[in-house]
Amino acid sequence: MLLPAGCGVDADGEQSRLCRVIIAGLEGSDSIEVLRVRAVAREARGRRGPGEGVEIDYRVRPDVGNAWGPARTLTCLFDPSRPSEKAVDRIVAVETPSGPLSPSRLYMLKRFWLDTQ
User: Fold this and answer.
1) Beta partners for 15?
2) Collapsing DSSP states into helix, strand and coil, what is residue 114?
3) In contact, 107 and 91? CB cutoff 8 Å
4) pLDDT tens string 37-94
5) Could you point out which of 38, 57, 78, 109 has its C-alpha 20 to 30 Å from the C-alpha of 10?
C-alpha cells in the first residue's frame, strides 16, 4: 500500500502517480511509505536532452511487523516535448537506488507492468 507523505508537492500529479506505481513494481512489496515527492528538471543519466519529472524518497518494510528499511530515492523523468501524450508514453528514464534502468528494462517495465495498471 502506498502511503502519501504530508508535504506540499508541485510535481505533476500523473507523473507522481506513475512513479509510485513503478516503485511498487520494482520493490515487489505492498508496504511502501512515501516520505517526500519533489519536481525535478534535468538530463537523465546516459541520455541527452532535457527531462522533467519527479523524485520520490521512500522506504520499504519487507514484512509486516518488521522495521522500515532505509530511505531510498527513485527518479522518473519524462520527455517535456510531448505534453499532450500520456505520462506512460513520455517516460524516458527511471533512476533507481541501484542506478538507471537500461533501455530494455525500461521497455519491459512499461510494457508488462505499467500497461497493466
Assistant:
1) none
2) helix
3) no
4) 999 987 766 556 667 899 999 999 887 778 899 999 999 999 888 878 888 888 999 9
5) 109
Which amino acid, one-letter code, is at 93? Answer: A
For the chain, the structural domain boundaries read 2-116
pTM: predicted TM-score of the whole model, two decimal places:
0.80
Q: What is the pLDDT of residues 91-117, one digit of tens each?
A: 999 999 899 999 999 999 988 888 776
Residue 62: CB partners within 8 Å, gap ≥ 6?
29, 31, 69
**Maximum Cα interatomic distance, the chain, rounded to a whole number of Å:** 45
Q: Is 93 exposed, middle or buried (0-12, 13-18, 19+ CB in 10 A)?
A: buried
Query: Nearest-CA neighbor of 74 among 26, 11, 3, 9?
Result: 26
CB neighbours of residue 79 within 10 Å: 19
